[in-house]
Amino acid sequence: MISGEAALDLEHPSPLPRPLARVYGEPVNEFPHDLYIPPEALEIFLETFEGPLDLLLYLIRRQNINVLDIPMAELTRQYLGYVEMMRRTQLELAAEYLLMAAVLIEIKSRLLLPRPPAPPGDESADPRAELVRRLLEYERMKQASRELDALPLVERDFATVCIFLERVAPTRFRGPAIGLGSAD
Predict the structure, then answer these.
(1) Which of 33, 86, 140, 174 is 20 to 30 A away from residue 15, measured at CA?
(2) How many other CB atoms sit within 10 Å of the CB of residue 126?
(3) Cα end-to-end distance, the chain, whole Å
Protein backbone atom coordinates (compact mmCIF):
# COMPACT_ATOMS: atom_id res chain seq x y z
CA MET A 1 0.00 0.00 0.00
CA ILE A 2 1.42 3.36 -1.03
CA SER A 3 0.96 6.34 1.28
CA GLY A 4 -0.87 9.49 0.06
CA GLU A 5 2.34 11.54 -0.35
CA ALA A 6 4.23 8.80 -2.16
CA ALA A 7 1.30 8.00 -4.46
CA LEU A 8 1.92 8.59 -8.12
CA ASP A 9 0.34 11.81 -9.38
CA LEU A 10 -0.76 11.09 -12.92
CA GLU A 11 -1.36 14.76 -13.75
CA HIS A 12 2.05 15.86 -12.42
CA PRO A 13 4.45 12.91 -12.69
CA SER A 14 7.56 15.11 -12.25
CA PRO A 15 9.63 14.79 -9.04
CA LEU A 16 9.77 18.64 -8.93
CA PRO A 17 7.27 20.37 -6.62
CA ARG A 18 3.80 20.85 -8.04
CA PRO A 19 3.41 24.34 -9.59
CA LEU A 20 1.11 26.85 -7.91
CA ALA A 21 -0.35 27.85 -11.25
CA ARG A 22 0.24 27.78 -14.96
CA VAL A 23 0.49 30.99 -16.96
CA TYR A 24 0.36 30.51 -20.72
CA GLY A 25 1.18 26.84 -20.15
CA GLU A 26 4.35 27.59 -18.15
CA PRO A 27 4.48 26.44 -14.50
CA VAL A 28 4.74 29.11 -11.80
CA ASN A 29 6.30 27.80 -8.58
CA GLU A 30 6.31 30.94 -6.42
CA PHE A 31 4.24 34.07 -6.08
CA PRO A 32 5.65 37.20 -7.69
CA HIS A 33 6.81 39.73 -5.08
CA ASP A 34 5.23 42.71 -6.86
CA LEU A 35 1.84 41.04 -7.42
CA TYR A 36 -1.14 43.17 -6.47
CA ILE A 37 -4.64 41.78 -6.71
CA PRO A 38 -7.36 44.31 -5.86
CA PRO A 39 -9.87 42.94 -3.34
CA GLU A 40 -12.85 43.51 -5.66
CA ALA A 41 -11.22 41.17 -8.22
CA LEU A 42 -11.62 38.23 -5.85
CA GLU A 43 -15.35 38.61 -5.21
CA ILE A 44 -17.57 35.68 -6.05
CA PHE A 45 -21.29 36.11 -6.62
CA LEU A 46 -23.20 32.87 -6.46
CA GLU A 47 -26.61 34.31 -7.26
CA THR A 48 -27.39 37.42 -9.24
CA PHE A 49 -30.66 39.21 -8.85
CA GLU A 50 -32.33 41.62 -11.23
CA GLY A 51 -33.70 43.75 -8.43
CA PRO A 52 -35.17 43.71 -4.91
CA LEU A 53 -38.33 41.86 -5.96
CA ASP A 54 -36.21 39.20 -7.65
CA LEU A 55 -34.24 38.64 -4.43
CA LEU A 56 -37.44 38.54 -2.40
CA LEU A 57 -39.05 36.07 -4.79
CA TYR A 58 -35.87 33.94 -4.69
CA LEU A 59 -35.96 33.79 -0.88
CA ILE A 60 -39.66 32.88 -0.90
CA ARG A 61 -39.30 30.17 -3.56
CA ARG A 62 -36.12 28.73 -2.01
CA GLN A 63 -38.03 27.94 1.19
CA ASN A 64 -41.24 26.86 -0.59
CA ILE A 65 -43.23 29.57 1.18
CA ASN A 66 -46.76 30.34 0.05
CA VAL A 67 -46.69 33.88 -1.33
CA LEU A 68 -50.09 34.58 0.20
CA ASP A 69 -48.84 33.72 3.72
CA ILE A 70 -45.32 35.16 4.05
CA PRO A 71 -43.60 34.83 7.47
CA MET A 72 -42.24 38.38 7.61
CA ALA A 73 -39.75 37.97 10.48
CA GLU A 74 -37.64 35.21 8.88
CA LEU A 75 -37.92 36.65 5.38
CA THR A 76 -36.82 40.10 6.62
CA ARG A 77 -33.85 38.58 8.48
CA GLN A 78 -32.63 36.73 5.38
CA TYR A 79 -33.24 39.71 3.14
CA LEU A 80 -31.24 42.00 5.44
CA GLY A 81 -28.39 39.46 5.41
CA TYR A 82 -28.17 39.71 1.62
CA VAL A 83 -28.45 43.51 1.75
CA GLU A 84 -25.65 43.75 4.33
CA MET A 85 -23.38 41.62 2.14
CA MET A 86 -24.26 43.80 -0.84
CA ARG A 87 -23.73 47.02 1.11
CA ARG A 88 -20.20 45.99 1.99
CA THR A 89 -19.31 45.39 -1.63
CA GLN A 90 -21.39 47.75 -3.78
CA LEU A 91 -23.07 50.59 -1.91
CA GLU A 92 -24.67 52.20 -4.98
CA LEU A 93 -26.38 48.93 -5.90
CA ALA A 94 -27.65 48.34 -2.36
CA ALA A 95 -29.80 51.51 -2.27
CA GLU A 96 -32.87 50.02 -3.97
CA TYR A 97 -32.49 46.85 -1.90
CA LEU A 98 -32.42 48.97 1.28
CA LEU A 99 -35.70 50.58 0.23
CA MET A 100 -37.30 47.12 -0.07
CA ALA A 101 -35.81 46.19 3.32
CA ALA A 102 -37.50 49.27 4.80
CA VAL A 103 -40.82 48.15 3.27
CA LEU A 104 -40.36 44.67 4.78
CA ILE A 105 -39.60 46.13 8.22
CA GLU A 106 -42.63 48.42 7.99
CA ILE A 107 -44.88 45.46 7.12
CA LYS A 108 -43.39 43.45 9.98
CA SER A 109 -43.98 46.29 12.46
CA ARG A 110 -47.58 46.75 11.24
CA LEU A 111 -48.15 43.03 11.84
CA LEU A 112 -46.73 43.24 15.36
CA LEU A 113 -48.46 46.42 16.53
CA PRO A 114 -52.04 46.26 17.76
CA ARG A 115 -54.54 47.42 15.18
CA PRO A 116 -57.12 50.05 15.97
CA PRO A 117 -60.67 48.71 16.03
CA ALA A 118 -62.14 48.65 12.56
CA PRO A 119 -65.45 50.40 11.88
CA PRO A 120 -68.39 48.01 11.45
CA GLY A 121 -68.56 46.49 7.98
CA ASP A 122 -64.94 47.47 7.13
CA GLU A 123 -62.44 44.66 7.02
CA SER A 124 -58.87 45.60 7.94
CA ALA A 125 -56.51 44.85 5.07
CA ASP A 126 -53.51 42.63 5.54
CA PRO A 127 -50.34 44.79 5.45
CA ARG A 128 -48.73 42.14 3.24
CA ALA A 129 -51.38 42.46 0.52
CA GLU A 130 -49.58 45.15 -1.53
CA LEU A 131 -46.28 43.25 -1.33
CA VAL A 132 -47.99 40.01 -2.40
CA ARG A 133 -49.64 41.82 -5.32
CA ARG A 134 -46.28 43.25 -6.45
CA LEU A 135 -44.55 39.86 -6.10
CA LEU A 136 -47.22 38.02 -8.10
CA GLU A 137 -47.14 40.70 -10.80
CA TYR A 138 -43.33 40.54 -10.94
CA GLU A 139 -43.43 36.74 -11.21
CA ARG A 140 -45.91 36.95 -14.10
CA MET A 141 -43.69 39.47 -15.92
CA LYS A 142 -40.62 37.31 -15.33
CA GLN A 143 -42.41 34.25 -16.72
CA ALA A 144 -43.60 36.24 -19.73
CA SER A 145 -40.04 37.42 -20.40
CA ARG A 146 -38.79 33.82 -20.26
CA GLU A 147 -41.47 32.79 -22.75
CA LEU A 148 -40.56 35.69 -25.06
CA ASP A 149 -36.89 34.80 -24.77
CA ALA A 150 -37.68 31.22 -25.78
CA LEU A 151 -39.15 32.40 -29.10
CA PRO A 152 -36.83 32.19 -32.12
CA LEU A 153 -34.85 35.37 -32.65
CA VAL A 154 -33.16 36.57 -35.83
CA GLU A 155 -29.35 36.51 -35.56
CA ARG A 156 -29.53 34.42 -32.37
CA ASP A 157 -31.41 31.31 -33.48
CA PHE A 158 -31.40 31.71 -37.24
CA ALA A 159 -29.94 34.02 -39.86
CA THR A 160 -31.61 35.73 -42.75
CA VAL A 161 -30.08 35.48 -46.19
CA CYS A 162 -30.14 38.31 -48.72
CA ILE A 163 -28.95 37.79 -52.27
CA PHE A 164 -28.27 40.78 -54.51
CA LEU A 165 -28.16 40.15 -58.25
CA GLU A 166 -26.70 42.72 -60.58
CA ARG A 167 -28.70 41.63 -63.62
CA VAL A 168 -31.76 39.48 -63.78
CA ALA A 169 -32.22 37.59 -67.03
CA PRO A 170 -35.67 36.06 -67.45
CA THR A 171 -35.65 32.53 -68.73
CA ARG A 172 -38.43 31.40 -70.98
CA PHE A 173 -39.52 27.88 -71.45
CA ARG A 174 -39.28 26.89 -75.12
CA GLY A 175 -40.77 23.51 -75.29
CA PRO A 176 -42.90 21.83 -77.93
CA ALA A 177 -46.02 23.76 -78.79
CA ILE A 178 -49.17 22.11 -77.70
CA GLY A 179 -52.12 22.67 -79.92
CA LEU A 180 -55.48 23.52 -78.56
CA GLY A 181 -57.54 21.87 -81.22
CA SER A 182 -56.72 23.92 -84.34
CA ALA A 183 -54.49 22.34 -86.91
CA ASP A 184 -52.53 24.40 -89.44
Answers:
(1) 33
(2) 15
(3) 107
